[in-house]
Amino acid sequence: MSLDRRLTLLATLAACSGSPGGGPSGSPSVSIAPAWIALLNGDSTRLTAIAIGPQGDTIAAPAVSWSTASSTVADVNSTGMVHARALGYTTVTVTFQGRSAVAGVAVTPNVLVGAGDIANCSLVDDSATATLLDTIAGVVFAAGDNAYSNGTTADYTNCYAPTWGRHKTRTRPTPGNHEYNSGGGGYYSYFGRLAGDSGIGYYSYDFARWHIVALNSNFSMATGSAQEQWLRADLAAHPATCALAYWHHPRFSSGTNHGSSTLPQPLWQALFDAGADVIVVGHEHHYERFAPQQPNGTADPTNGIRQFVVGTGGAALYPFGPPIANSEVRNNTTHGVIKLTLNPAAYAWRYITTAGAVADSGSGSCH
Description:
Blueprint: H1 3-16, E1 29-33, E2 36-39, E3 44-46, E4 48-52, E5 58-59, E6 65-68, E7 74-76, E8 81-84, E9 88-96, E10 99-107, E11 111-115, H2 125-134, E12 139-143, H3 153-160, E13 171-174, H4 185-191, E14 203-207, E15 210-214, H5 226-237, E16 242-246, H6 265-273, E17 278-281, E18 287-290, E19 306-310, E20 327-331, E21 336-343, E22 346-353, E23 358-365
Parallel strand pairs: 2-10, 11-12, 12-13, 15-16, 16-17, 17-19
Antiparallel strand pairs: 1-4, 3-8, 4-5, 6-9, 7-8, 9-10, 11-21, 14-15, 18-19, 18-20, 21-22, 22-23
Helix pairs in contact: 3-4, 5-6
């Protein structure tokens, strides 16, 4: 089966999959939106309680109570307003008629850090990159192929959990093709709500005044597909000065194992049309930085998107071919992570190797 047909089939299966309901029939239920937030120290945001009555009706202004597991990290008032007090992680609970729901709260610096192509029980480099994460506070992203070889529950339990898994509460992942070798069930079971809606794999969140989008390049990315339409609607609903997206398969790559693919171009186009600034991907097991460019590969220093390929989380590294257009920096000799510092109208990057060296760095302005 061709990759196009496989992606279309996966998208169709996802569209046909229903989401589980709240509680048993005739019982009230409650949920929190969003189910996970990241705040800078001193910032505040309001969580929303969604209460469903015994007849399945949404209750306006429900009588709920709020609590926090650690008021030292973040407190919450009677209206669901969360205020970040200190770096760390905690949970906020809402209770309604004996039912409760929990949201995760990460209080963190304005840093997004991570890589793709990570954990393999037969290798040790993922332990080294996880040790790097131990020293870098921030939100962690995992850009797919997170647990080799097939993303099963056993792969996540035995390979990913002992290394990158210790940063799970601050991780927002995206799946790779290896996760779908086993249908994706192990990935969604392991990450739960951290992976967005189960079975879909694309979602967004706001962090450090940036809008962040995690996409699923294993589903159809074609113009008019469910994912592409969702992305355009999401970007329109969350206008921001700065925006970043990450997923697994690269639009552009100088690698010889996979290389460039036109399949993500419609997602690039949606992001370009919305003025997005940065894309991070994996799949090719190396580090490569591109100059800002348009979805068709035309250099565009004013409005283009800068892409980073960071498939260096622990899997065996891949060779490069001749550099393609707009490729600026390449490294396939050292595993590492990319640290992105997200400022209100700009960003800075550092590719940090497992030896602790900074192998690439720079900065850019948002559109």
